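REVIEWER CHECKLIST
Item 1: Sequence provided? yes
Item 2: Single chain? yes
Item 3: Sequence as submitted:
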Amino acid sequence: MSVSRRDLLKASCAVATALSLGSSALRGRDALAAEEGVPVVGQDEEGKVADWQAVAEFLYGEEFWYSDPFREVEGLTEEQLFWVPNPKCLCILWQAGHIAHRERTHIGRFLQGVEQDLIPSRYEAFGPDWCSVDFGPDWCSVEEMRSSIDSVGEVFAWVRDVRKESRAYIASLSDADWHQVPAGSEFGMTVAQWVFLTTVHAAMHLGRIQLLRALLEDEHDRPC
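Item 4: Structure as written out by the authors:
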């Protein structure tokens, strides 16, 4: 699949709408959309609601680099995946595992209502409780995380399985489903909002992987 700037712009516009960005941000995106000849945010040429499913399949697909952690860790050794610039940092492997942890929580719990056996206990090391900003009692060191998981290969297999489950869920949605607020949804958010918010979360942590890799390989001026 060849990803064009037009496709990326469409996806960006859809995410902006789904997350209800401020009016100034939307106006800026609408202006760029008009310049590129792309429909107004969230609508097609006939004024119909955008095809959320097609956009989601694109964002969760392997061709969209800001949703695929494996592009950013390719070629790294196990020791490099666990490397941190100082003892209070979270390593590259944690960032990749955390992307999957939150994706499974957002889609599995908030949207599908799964409560039992949602995330294997050995991968709870990738959850938010282990990265408290004040480095309190829940803080997880690299050594603790390493002892919690089975192997790097198994972690990556789990990350791939989580994405596979997400794609299957997205493929199952009807047009009406995207506007529903599931019973388990936090903050009264719709299916569309959770699906697209999750890709934004993934992109943020992929940026952190890029930064850590640049520090690790001593290429501080490397563009993202």
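Item 5: Key structural point noted by reviewer: Residues 191-216 form the longest helix (26 residues).
Item 6: Recommendation: ____
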